[in-house]
Amino acid sequence: MESSGSLFVGTYILQLILHLPSQMAPHIQDLVAALVKRLQSCQITGLRSSLLLIFARLVHMSAPNVEQFIDLLVTVPAKDYDNSFVYVMSEWAKQQGEIQGAYQIKVTTTALALLLSTRHVELAKINVQGHLVKGITTRSKAKSAPDQWTVMPLPAKILALLADVLIEIQEQVAIGNDEDSDWEEIQAEDVETDQDLVFSSGATSFGRPTYEQLEAMAKVFDENQDDGDEDDLLSGADPLNEINLANYLADFLVEFSHSDRQLFDHLCQSLTESQRNASQMILNR
Q: What is the C-alpha separation between 64 and 66, in angstroms, rounded?
């Protein structure tokens, strides 16, 4: 099937997973093999994102036994890669920033958090695309030379992607503060003094966001992500769409850092300054 003719396959498979999970469970390994093969052959960004969304939903479907889903992926071969887990996570790390829609971002971001929380031994074996290397170059050279990226361990990359979502939410709420009165209503509830700390990723000291602030962040994030009618139909059937992403990430970072502070601090060394600041803002009380 041509890529342009299979753009809705991802949505169809997601509907099956959501509505017929027990019937789909025995076929997960075959489904994974088919998805990997399709992902390796397609070129359309939207289709690649929809296929990765299925993997993310399968991660949630496997909870609380996410380790078993990782083990399953390791057993499935992938062309030119050690196994399907290596391939899928390599592609996911590159593609996550291109995924659009509040529902899609919620599902994929929280799935990444679930994967990281397992501390599975296979995670640390994988190196993926890291940060974009910014150098001084001429305009003509920039057009001909491909982007250069660092390489970083998968666990650090996942933490960086989670921090990027926090940064995006904070920035969107900051914009909303300038454009409408939603945030002014929250300010009236005695949180005005914390506003600059919540929205400034460059500050040197940070205050932990209040529940009301996280609620406001989630509200503005949802409003700024434009889902189509088809996505509305899909997200409406999925309880994951009710997740408050700001609250989820805050709770995850606190729990993850407290459970293994040494690992958390080690991973943070690979983050950019803005990513570290966004994470630290959540952790500081």
A: 6
